[in-house]
Amino acid sequence: MPIVQHGPRDKPRIALTFDADLTVAMRRRLTNGTVKSYYNDALVQHLRDLKVPATLFLTGLWMEQYPDRTRELAADPLFELGTHTYDHRAFTKHCYTLGTVARPDMLTDVRRAVTILDGLDPHATRWFRFPGGCYDGTALHELAPAGVTAVGLDVPGADGFAKSPKSIVKQVLGHARNGSIVVLHLHGGDNAPYTDEAIVPIVTELRAKGYEFVTVTELMKP
Fold first, then answer.
1. 128-147 pLDDT, tens per residue?
2. Beta strands in 7-89 (DSSP E)
3. 25: helix, coil or strand?
4. Continuous segment of H or E residues that includes residue 156
5. Which residue, 66, 43, 62, is CA-closest to 193?
6. 179 and 219 in contact (C-beta within 8 Å)?
7. Are the beta carbons of 122 and 115 closer than 8 angstroms?
8. Considering only CA atoms, which of 107, 100, 158 is closest in space to residue 128?
9. Does the model's pTM come out above 0.85?
10. I want to staple 132 with a disulfide (CB 3.0 to 4.6 A). Which of 11, 91, 95, 123 is the partner?
């Protein structure tokens, strides 16, 4: 299974990527009203207002929860969509507090998410991101037949459970460089509550430094 960690380091281009996580536990919080939504509408609107291309990695559960939003994002020329497994369980043991997909179920899990995305997005990519960025040789071997390419964590944005937007901005600005793939989150809610507030200063500052924002597909072109 191929892996992309970053783009060419000789060009001032950066790919902003956003993961839309949804786990069984998160869906339960939606159902009981603890969380209103796991779609950060303000974040998406900021990206549109700023005309920032982005690559979005969606879990199967998220797409099932928000099929109309998925179609809407797919139809927006700013965005390209990839997959992020079905229910955000990890593909190695001891990956944060995520559960683990059993080895015999790994390929089925990823293919399930790909099938859902293909049904909602006629332009779906085969970009894929491992939950938590956790993988090993076993996972790469098992997922090879899925035909996806893993996109790594060159610059983790650290917006998950962040306490303020300032820490996110500092993390991204302090580590982004030519060819970086920045990882942030699309779902907002209680898991990533400040991403929308951080994105405007991130984009503004990096553009002021001369960086161009592109999708992962554009970043990886020769």
1. 999 999 999 999 999 999 99
2. 13-20, 54-58, 79-83
3. helix
4. strand 155-156
5. 43
6. yes
7. no
8. 107
9. yes
10. 95
CA–CA distance from 42 to each of 12, 70, 200 (Å)? 27, 16, 11
134-140 contacts at long range (C-beta below 8 A, 24 or more positions apart): 134/90, 134/91, 134/92, 134/95, 134/96, 134/98, 135/91, 135/92, 136/91, 136/92, 138/92, 138/103, 139/1, 139/91, 139/92, 139/106, 140/1, 140/3
- Report the alpha-carbon distance of residue 84 to residue 82 in Å, rounded: 7
- The rounded distance, in Å, linking the Cα atoms of 40 and 193 is 9
Measured in residues, the chain has a length of 222
pLDDT tens readout for residues 143-183: 999 999 999 989 999 999 999 999 999 999 999 999 999 99
Q: Which of 185, 152, 190, 151 is nearest to 168 (CA)?
A: 185
- Name residues whose C-beta falls within 8 Å of residue 187's C-beta, 6 or more positions apart in sequence: 19, 20, 21, 22, 26, 38, 39, 40, 62
Distance (Å, rounded) from C-alpha 125 to C-alpha 147?
11
The pair phi, psi for residue 214, each rounded to 5°, is: -140, 165
Residue type, 14: I
Buried b (16+ CB within 10 A) or exposed e, 159-194: bbebeebeebbebbeeebeebbbbbbbbbbbebbbb
Distance CA 144, CA 154 (A): 22
